[in-house]
């Protein structure tokens, strides 16, 4: 039944998924150590920072981070709790849909430290030569334009 | 704080994650319709088919599919239940670690139909021109070699 010829594109896809999972794992581990964020928490702060007012509705964050409503809600509650303190709930009285979360100064600080870590991990992966040439070339693209920065972070949930 | 220059590699990574999530979503939807598998169920069958005896220990499957022990265990129980019937439990009496799951004929049939669907979705994504040139080139690689076919399927869990 198995045909290696017809499996070509599936194998390429699995190779890509595999590389993505390995790098995600490294990002998780590195961020946990410093500044003490999960990868999804980092993405929450990153997408908030792209908003001019540094605040977003949960629905907007959910679309960007790519989590289910309940998972994102749990994440934000955790990040608003004093133990993390990276986010602050913001209820707008004259807008019934107006429950926002916004970044605190501590959150902004964690994000900045997190960005340095994430860039180090990604740059190390590109420099290591472990990526297929096409991916290395894609990841090494200059910072001209910012395709993807508004997209979601690709969570499966 | 936000620097678009230093965000270059992070944006590339987010773009990649975003494309991966969109294609994963299409694969999930297409497989659900026909042959009625989740993407992880498809991966379980695919990795089993790569084993000469078409059977693997749960631990081996777990590494390949990239799920946690509990998630993989739930998945396999569901696939062994009569309602799905794609897998069959196999307990080897003279090997204490010997709990395997193996593919049934129905499972092999579902896998074959699933492979056609997966290839169609992936080929359509490549042909659509929506992928960045580097990724299109990577995905279009010939079927020579089979890098990645032994790896895991890149689940976050």
Automatic annotation (TrEMBL), chains A, B:
SMART domains, per database record: HTH_MARR (SM00347)
Entries under SUPFAM superfamilies matching the protein: Winged helix' DNA-binding domain
Keywords: DNA-binding
Protein name: MarR family transcriptional regulator
An example Gene Ontology biological process: response to stress
Top-rank lineage group of the source organism: Bacteria
GO molecular function terms noted in the UniProt entry: DNA binding; DNA-binding transcription factor activity
Gene3D superfamilies listed in its UniProt record: Winged helix-like DNA-binding domain superfamily/Winged helix DNA-binding domain (1.10.10.10)
Keyword DNA-binding: yes
HTH marR-type domain location: 30-134
Organism: Saccharibacillus brassicae
PANTHER family: MARR-FAMILY TRANSCRIPTIONAL REGULATOR (PTHR33164:SF57), TRANSCRIPTIONAL REGULATOR, MARR FAMILY (PTHR33164)
Pfam (any one): MarR_2
